[in-house]
Amino acid sequence: MSKPRAKLTDNFPGCPVESTLGFLDGKWKGVILYHLLENGTLRFNELRRRIPSVTQRMLTKQLRELEEAGLLERTVFAVVPPRVDYTLTPLGLSLEPVITALRVWGKEHVICRDGKKFVVAPEEQVALEAA
Question: What are phi and psi of 69, to 5 degrees?
Answer without folding.
Answer: -80, -10
